[in-house]
Design goal:
Elements: H1 2-16, E1 22-32, E2 37-43, E3 46-49, H2 52-57, H3 61-70, H4 92-104, E4 110-120, E5 125-131, E6 134-137, H5 140-145, H6 149-157, H7 172-177
Helix pairs in contact: 1-6, 3-4
């Protein structure tokens, strides 16, 4: 049994070196700013943020930062280059871009609360979900053992942005090998 788990963990390490295997469909996150906390969502390629800048301009530093952090995992329509500002931010865009760069260097500001993604494994694509700190994967290995290389790879890639209970170190697999 342990050799099977060790093999899956080794496979997860290899997968974690290839973040482009993950295709995020939707996410929900909290962003902890200097003054307030905001809710970010990505659903069907469209972003939303509860901050005033997003309400006014259709984009914000919080979204631009998470776009930088998750760039290769985002669908093309959700990437920064595809964002359409609903109002011209004028010269303040320079400040917003710089602030987004700083935020992207602090991934712990983001707390992912929900994920719905496709993981493109060696043989098949599998749907991965995170809800209420609980992972799910449509692969047969997850059903049998409540853990798989796909989920472990995502946990490793997004560790700084995951709730503590959803991190690899908190899972049954990590405990079994300790």
């Amino acid at each position: 049994m342990y050799s099977t788990m060790i093999g899956k963990i080794d496979k997860a390490r290899r997968y974690a070196q290839e973040p482009e295997r993950i295709e995020l469909g939707s996410i929900a996150a909290r962003f902890r700013g200097g003054h307030d906390e905001y809710t970010l969502t990505l659903d069907e390629g469209r972003w939303s943020c509860s901050c005033n800048s997003f309400a006014h301009f259709g984009c914000c530093t919080h979204i631009m930062a998470v776009q930088r952090l998750l760039a290769v995992m985002l669908p093309p329509t959700a990437q920064y280059e595809q964002m359409a500002w609903t109002a011209d931010p004028g010269s303040s865009i320079i400040g917003k871009l710089e602030k987004a760069r700083r935020y992207a260097d602090e991934p712990q500001r983001f707390a992912l609360t929900a994920i719905d993604a496709m993981f493109h494994g060696s043989n098949d694509a599998h749907r991965i979900t995170l809800r209420d700190d609980l992972w799910g994967c449509a692969c047969h290995a997850f059903d049998a053992r409540e853990g798989c290389a796909h989920v472990i790879a995502v946990q490793r890639l997004l560790a700084a942005m995951l709730p503590v209970r959803a991190r690899y170190e908190e899972t049954a697999w990590a405990g079994a090998l300790a």
